[in-house]
Amino acid sequence: MAWVESIQKAIEYMEQNIVEDMTIDSIAEQANVSPFHFQRTFAVLTEMTVGDYLRRRRLTLAGEELLTTDAKIIDLAYKYGYDTPEAFSKAFRRQHGVSPSEARKYKRKLQSYNRLIIQVTLKGAEPMKYSVVEKNAFQIVGIKREFACVAEEENVVGIPELWEEVNQNGTSDRLFQLNDGVVKGVLGVCGGVSDEQEKANVFDYWVATSYAGKVPEGMMSLEIPASKWAVFEVNGPMPAAMQNAWKRIFSEWFPSTGYEHAGTPEFELYTDENPNSPDLYSEIWIPIK
């Protein structure tokens, strides 16, 4: 359960410094993981970004102060991180459905988000089928795009659009043909975060396959380091089955084992079956230590 405790420690840090100008680096440091992996884990567990959580909590607390104190709206705006009263009012209305002045004047009910507590269910869940394997380093080839770690809405749209692109232009067919069998299938690889990308809060997402030969024209390569892997079976249509599997891995499997994420690239493995098939078989590969 130390893994859950480390995530909760980071959440407590956010709460204790809710009106301060925190960085994702300082938050992730509390959980003893990289900013990239903290943001990814947080989003899987809570279905919102770190930025979303902070914004919702700040506007919740601002609303409470608005209704229970005589604090000026402009002071609340600055206290909770907004440069202007106009920006504060816009964000306040988006969350609460009314402006700050309307909320105070008419004592309107506000949308409240309570402080987050990570709860993990370890009993009564369906069994997860997985194996632990060790593999030497191997090369993948394919195409990559850069995405912002914090732009969850952008990624929800952008990554599926990338898959649609490679499926329509024949790239995925070509990758299946290139596959050398080290890891069978086409991979969606998340990671490969350089120091510069860490600072810029971005990461690389690859659509690729394992291939040891010369890098084909129009593609790039990445070496996946030698690792011990937890390989999870995923059964069911995309994307619901994959999303559900990720959530169970972070909320059930990691907390109940002694393993930690190794911090190197992880990937989803796809076959050439119909992605809408209820019997679709896929896998999630996570490097562990």
Automatic annotation (TrEMBL):
Domain HTH araC/xylS-type residue range list: 8-106
Keywords, in A-Z order: DNA-binding, Transcription, Transcription regulation
Keyword DNA-binding recorded: yes
Keyword RNA-binding: no
A matching Pfam family: HTH_18
UniProt cross-references to SMART domains, sorted A to Z: AraC_E_bind, HTH_ARAC
Name this polypeptide is given: AraC family transcriptional regulator
